[in-house]
Amino acid sequence: EEVNATPLGVPSAPRNLVASGGDGYVVLTWEAPADDGGSPITGYKIYRGTSSGNETLLATVGNVLTYNDTGLTNGQRYYYRVSAVNGIGEGGLSEEVSALPQGVPSAPQNLVAMGGDGYVVLTWEAPADDGGSQIVGYKIYCGMRSGGETYLTTTGNVTTYRDTGVTNGRTYYYRVSAVNGIGEGELSEEASATPQGVPSAPENLVARGGEGYVVLTWEAPADDGGSPIIGYKIYRGMESGNEVLLTRVGDVTTYNDTGVTNGQRYYYRVSAVNGIGEGELSEEASATPLGVPPAPADTSTSGGMSILPLLAAIAVAIVVFVLIVLFSRWRKSHTPRGRGSLEGESWGMSIEE
To answer: How many other C-beta atoms are found inside a 10 Å radius of the C-beta of residue 201?
Structure first.
């Protein structure tokens, strides 16, 4: 009687092995062997190494055609080979493949924001993990309240940025993310800064001269630099454009300069000071202190009485005397003889006396 037998053997190697890297993992896919050795495939063995040709057994799986190798280090290249197993045993190894697991970067480190005069400078350090792919740039986020940052700009692979689109005295909040060939990573911790600068010049300086003094008045600067005004510096000179520091005053808008000489013109400029420093000088103003005219010379007599009233009294007495004489003569010429002679004599005697 005829007997038929089929020889059995191990499978041939799996076909078309492919390795695809991800963020911390590599996915392997393959196809079943062309020859199962006459016995059904029962599973596969996965071999892995960190250098070509040095793979060691990693895992054994069932009769599946994919495997996800997790827990890997981004940026480290891994090499793989796979074999099929049937009831007889393990077959030959597949062709070698490799993959580089990659992901987005971790967050930039140690973000610091420093305010200046009309700007904020950001500095940071690169992420501890670049995701296995080189950092190609950073994204800057900015907001005017904590946690309210929105996209501001993208930079290259640098670790500093100068934000000039800010206003002195306002607080700005920032976060930064790193970008690699895979994509954008996590946001950094938040940092904030308040840009501040020196004040602008005081406005509307006016100088008014008086008797031995010059009074200055002005208005506060339009821009305090983001820091409160704490005082002013007064500059004075005796020529236009040659003012030197005269004094410092508090947060007031007037000054009385009493150390002046009447008739001498003085030139002034004023600057404002805040917590950052001294600002610009104001426009120049000038004034000439003037006094009242000098008093007339002393015309009093040695006795202390003024001579002017005495002279006036003498003048009045003379006028009265002249009028009496003239009236007496007129009366004699217009009075009858008899009685008039007596009256005339009476007048005459009175006058002579």
So the answer is: 18
Give the per-residue pLDDT at 49: 98
Count of domains for the chain: 4
What region, left, alpha or beta, does residue 32 occupy, with left being phi > 0 and alpha being psi -120 to 50 degrees? Answer: beta
Give residue 204's Cα distance to chain centre: 25
**Domain membership flag for residue 150:** yes
172-180 and 244-249 beta bridge pairing: unpaired
CATH number of the domain encompassing residue 20: 2.60.40.10
Same-domain pairing of 167 and 138: yes
- Biggest alpha carbon–alpha carbon distance for the chain: 219
- List, in order, residues 6 or more apart from 29 with CB less than 8 Å away: 17, 18, 20, 65, 66
Question: How far apart (Å, rounded) are the C-alpha atoms in residues 102 and 139?
Answer: 20
Phi then psi for residue 329, to 5 deg, are -65, -40
Q: What pLDDT does residue 39 have?
A: 96
Does residue 5 sit within a domain? no
pLDDT tens, position by position, 79-122: 999 999 999 999 999 999 999 999 999 999 999 999 999 999 99
Cα distances from 113 to residues 106, 125, 189, in angstroms, run: 20, 13, 11
Structure pTM? 0.68
